[in-house]
């Protein structure tokens, strides 16, 4: 298992800050969008609460259990007919607003709006590059570490579920599907987890993250079995 010993924690940070990442495409072609790739560690559980933005009502739904192994926070988009992102797995994020000071500011604003995690509760690691969608969005992904202060709140009209997916699980799939060192096409590049599948541009981001982490993390974390 991957554990937050000093070496493993530092390698995750060094892999992100010390690696080359996909560059920004022409700005007049794509709509600027940002997402937050949020790592989580720790032995404290976190409550997940559905919060209706219209009525203000709040409903306890679930708990992210304590786990000392690193994970990533994913959202599953709402199951609403006609919603273009219906049921898709994603990182918290959205389109850049004119008032956002930067693409990083967009990612942090969307993180707080979508799951109630404020910028003060995130240790930022920086950008991990640009990823394009088939509908001409340029997504800049930013990585950070959640300090796990407070509960997660989300609006059920936008999000149906919150997932904490172990990094070890994603590394296992990446290794077993022989994704290392190559770029699979859209149909092959999938990362299943329980009853959901990460695909599309979110899978592209995961693939890049696994590629930069994998060479560094194996010698220092007690895995090649990863999550098994």
Layout of SSEs?
Blueprint: H1 6-17, E1 31-40, E2 46-51, E3 58-64, E4 71-77, E5 89-90, E6 93-95, H2 103-115, E7 122-132, E8 137-146, E9 152-154, E10 159-166, H3 167-176, E11 191-193, E12 196-198, H4 200-217
Parallel strand pairs: 1-8, 2-9
Antiparallel strand pairs: 1-4, 1-6, 2-3, 4-5, 4-10, 7-8, 11-12
Helix pairs in contact: 1-4
Describe this structure in words.
The protein is an alpha+beta fold. It has one domain (6-217): Alpha-Beta Complex (Nucleoside Triphosphate Pyrophosphohydrolase), CATH 3.90.79.10. It contains four helices and twelve strands. The strands form three sheets. Strands 1, 4, 5, 6, 7, 8 and 10 form a seven-stranded mixed β-sheet that branches. Helix 1 (6-17) packs across helix 4 (200-217). The longest helix has 18 residues, at 200-217. The chain is globular, with a radius of gyration of 17 Å. It starts with 5 loop residues before the first helix and ends in an 11-residue tail after the last helix. Mean pLDDT is 85; it is low at 222-228.
């Amino acid at each position: 298992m991957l554990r937050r010993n000093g070496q493993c924690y530092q390698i995750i940070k060094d892999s992100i800050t010390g690696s080359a990442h996909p560059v920004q495409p022409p700005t007049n072609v794509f709509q600027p969008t940002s997402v937050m790739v949020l790592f989580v560690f720790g032995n404290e559980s976190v409550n997940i609460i559905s919060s209706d933005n219209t009525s203000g009502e709040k409903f306890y739904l679930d708990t992210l259990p304590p786990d000392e192994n690193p994970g990533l926070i994913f959202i599953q988009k709402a199951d609403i007919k006609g919603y273009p992102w219906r049921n898709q797995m994603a990182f918290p994020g959205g389109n850049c607003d004119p008032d956002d000071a930067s693409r990083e500011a967009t990612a942090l604003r969307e993180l707080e709006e979508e799951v109630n995690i404020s910028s003060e509760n995130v240790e930022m690691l920086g950008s991990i590059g640009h990823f394009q969608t088939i509908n001409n969005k340029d997504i800049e992904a930013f990585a950070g570490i959640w300090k796990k202060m407070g509960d997660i709140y989300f609006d059920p009209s936008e999000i149906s579920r919150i997932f904490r997916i172990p990094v070890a699980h994603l590394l296992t799939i990446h290794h077993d599907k022989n994704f290392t060192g190559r770029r699979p096409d859209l149909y092959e590049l999938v990362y299943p987890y329980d009853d959901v599948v990460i695909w599309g541009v979110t899978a592209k981001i995961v693939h890049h993250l696994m590629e930069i982490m994998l060479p560094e993390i194996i010698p220092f974390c007690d895995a090649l079995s990863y999550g098994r």
